[in-house]
Amino acid sequence: MNKKTLAWAACLVFSLVSGMPAAQAQSAYPPPPASYSQEQLDQMLAPVALYPDSLLAQVLMAATYPLEVVQAQRFVEARPGLQGDGLARAVAPMPWDPSVKSLVQFPSVLAMMNDRLDWMQQLGQAFLAQQGPVMDTVQNLRERAQVAGSLQSSPQQRVLADDGLIMIEPVDPQVVYVPYYNPVVVYGSWWWPSAPPVVWTPPPRYRPPHYSPGVTASISFSSGIGVMRAAFGDARPDWRQRQVMVTQTRITNVTNNNVTNNVTVNRNVTVNQRPVAWHHDARYGGQRYQQHPNPPQANNGRAEPPRSPAPQQAQAQVPPAPQARPAAALPPPPAAAPGPQQRVIQQDQERQRQAREQQAAQTREAQAQQHQREQQAHDQQRQREQIANDQQRQREQMVREQRQQQQAQERQVQQRQQQMHDTQARQAEQARDQQRQAQQQQQRQQQEQARQQQEQGRHQQEQARREQQSRNDRRDDGK
After folding, report:
1. CA 233 vs CA 106, 267, 280: distances in Å
2. In Å, how far are 34, 349, 357, 386 from 354, measured between CA atoms?
3. Which end of the chain lies in a sparser environment, N or C, as judged by fewer CB atoms within 10 Å?
4. Does the pLDDT value for residue 172 go beyond 70?
5. Alpha-carbon distance 245 to 233, whole Å?
């Protein structure tokens, strides 16, 4: 299951446990897509397309009430020994749609719908939004099963063909048997390999004695437990008008014969005297889906006339009889419709054409994706080259900056060396000046000392001369 289905299932379980009103729980049902493709319709309808008409109609209608189907399954599981008339009386007061009440007597079908919530969701959405294509798809699937030799009359049911339409009716009008088959092989080779249909294996208590879950194209019928027709309303597909017709009835006696494994229904009160077109019940405060009217489409030579919606199933009005038209306005008689094999061949050719177009589209998409990948690879290569160039430029810039820093450091060293040399030169010059000054001062001192010595010598000489002169004078005086 996907996340949407899991969330929806959790909402259903929570509503059952907490007693959430039905209207709130139904509003939690996820919105349907705009439309389902033919591939999706074939896939979802393959498991039930070979059901008898009356049972198929009940399944299609009940699928539009998923919460009630889950509640009905819980109701049946809680009462394993209740069946037949007792089960009908127990279900009668429940506020469920008549189709859901009728399926309570079909426990294997009810179990399948409850187990396959995602499939039931899609089936209900498709039946409400695309009722015409749903009915056409069932007919196409039946034609394929008939061509493959799988759909034939049996002691349980009759297969009737009328003007290109295939009806499946029970041999006994009061008893309907559920057919069990493998939808992958019963229609022949499945034509949508990428979308195989759902294969549902019934629980062991509902399987026929000779049921084989392997790959077989045969159809088995319920014999371990009998099933009955709609206990709370007759329903029958109107294949020509591509709709379901219903007749509301009240059941006063439902007999379950465990010996013959059948359920017999006695109806003695009819609410609607004539069948009316089925429309979804809006009693929950508005329909949960936006129903799209089925446009008139050709369906193997059959066209659908426009229909007017009715508010409720039990209150729909009987459609008026068509008015006669003048002879001049009558259209020409339609061409003879092709046989089932021709229609299957035409459908296969159309699907082959669609497959070729899809293959061509996939090829174009693959080429576009390849071109996009190549463009992305080219862009990434350019980005890598750009990044490499940027990194190279950054490395070169770093080398230049390192070189400049180294040169600046060398200049600084040279400047410091020059400054030291100049300082040393100045200091040497200062030392030389100081030495010269010291020498000059010493010379001056020496010269001064020499001058002083000369003067002292002269002074001594002069003194000695004067002394000598004085002695001479004294000597002269002494003479």
Report:
1. 14, 10, 15
2. 21, 8, 5, 46
3. C
4. yes
5. 10
The pLDDT of residue 257: 42
The answer to whether the CB of 42 falls within 8 A of the CB of 141 is yes
Residues 6+ apart with CB under 8 A from 343: 140, 143, 164, 300
- In angstroms, the CA 23 to CA 29 distance is 10
With a cut of 50, say whether residue 299 has pLDDT above it.
no
Residue type, position 397, single letter = Q
Q: Which two tokens stand for residue 415?
A: 């400047």
Q: Which two tokens stand for residue 157?
A: 């049911």
Question: At 2, phi and psi to the nearest 5?
Answer: -85, 175
Rounded to two decimals, the pTM is 0.57
Using pLDDT thresholds of 50, 70 and 90, give the confidence band for residue 240: very high
| C-alpha span between 217 and 187 (Å, rounded) | 8
Q: Which two tokens stand for residue 369?
A: 């994706």
Tens-place pLDDT, residues 254-283: 444 433 334 444 433 444 457 888 888 755
Write out the two tokens for 340.
């089932």
pLDDT greater than 90 at residue 253? no
142 against 362, higher pLDDT: 142
Provide mean pLDDT across the span 71-85.
87
Contact partners, residue 51, CB within 8 Å, separation at least 6: 59, 168, 178, 179
Which of 128-137, 186-195, 310-319, 344-353 has the highest average model confidence (pLDDT)?
A: 128-137
Distance CA 410, CA 404 (A): 10
Reported for 171-175, long-range contacts at CB under 8 A and 24+ positions apart, including other chains, are: 173/229, 174/228, 174/229, 174/264, 174/265, 175/226, 175/227, 175/228, 175/229, 175/262, 175/263, 175/264
